[in-house]
Amino acid sequence: MKRSYWQDLKGAFYLIWRNKWSFIAIGILLQFVVGIGAAALTWLFHLAVLLAGQANIDKNNLVSVMSHPLSLLALLVFIMVFAFLFMLEMRTLISVIYLSRTDRHLSFKKVLRQSFGRLKDLAGRNLLYFLLYLFLTLPVAGVLIGSTLTDGLYIPTFITGEFEKTSIGSIGLFVVQLTFIYLNLRLIYTVPNLVVEELPFGRALKKSWSMTKRGVFRLLWRILSFEFLLTFLGILLILGLVFTLTVIDKEGQYFWVETIFLVLIRTFLFIFTVLTKVGSLGIILDSAWEVPS
């Protein structure tokens, strides 16, 4: 049975409020693991560039790096590590949402084993599907639901800068970005299909495309509404912290007050990111699957 607009919003806020400490703890653990993985990815990428005899990568040496055998091997390892971390993060978040509905606890060791086991699904054609998914996600990373890894990715400025030099190029770039956002909407169920349905990447993509023939903009509206309300509450909290700071230290003379304030802001932003991602994923899951209750 389809849920109403208000049921989805109420369900998302109830989900994050009821399980906030569990989600924050999982978020900290994921941040630690993915952070180490991101450092390894950075090292692998630099290794791929160095193996091609280059100091960095730009529009002049891109082909040289991509055509060097050792660089290609390093990039293949990069892709497999990226895929593992991607599956680990998204599988953990979706699993913890499901388990929170039944008051069961998450086995991080089991999630690690399952994420590693799914790497075999990226053999052959499914690897190409995964690369296609990353290619479509990269231009709008952070706009819709994505991994912490993809949130930090962006198209190099030496590519977008060429288009932004002219008005027609800027308009064309804007149209392309809208197109990528639409494609990401159509593929929004890809990751849940990987975890919930245990589908290979290619079938997960195709099923998501089929599932979003109708209702995709209604789903987007509900996700944006949830994020807007959560952002509004976050702004109120930050304003409260600022007001408290001005009361305690009107002249800005106490370094320890400013330090505590900055730590609280950074902590809040981290918590906000985790709860936003979990709440939005909860709406996506509830829109297509009967989540245990």
Walk me through the structure:
The chain is globular. The chain contains 13 helices and no strands. The longest helix has 34 residues, at 255-288. It has a domain at 215-292. Helix 1 (5-18) crosses helix 12 (216-248) and helix 10 (190-196) packs across helix 11 (201-211). By secondary structure, it is mostly helical. The chain crosses the membrane at residues 21-52, 72-99, 127-147, 167-185, 219-248, 254-275. Keywords: Membrane, Transmembrane, Transmembrane helix.
Shape: globular
Query: How many strands, what sense, and barrel or not for the largest sheet?
Result: none
Q: Average pLDDT across residues?
A: 80
What is the number of E strands?
0
Secondary-structure-derived class: mainly alpha
Assign a percent range to the helix content. Answer: over 70%
Radius of gyration: 21 Å
Low-confidence stretches: none
Secondary-structure blueprint:
Layout: H1 5-18, H2 20-51, H3 62-67, H4 69-100, H5 108-117, H6 125-137, H7 148-151, H8 157-163, H9 167-186, H10 190-196, H11 201-211, H12 216-248, H13 255-288
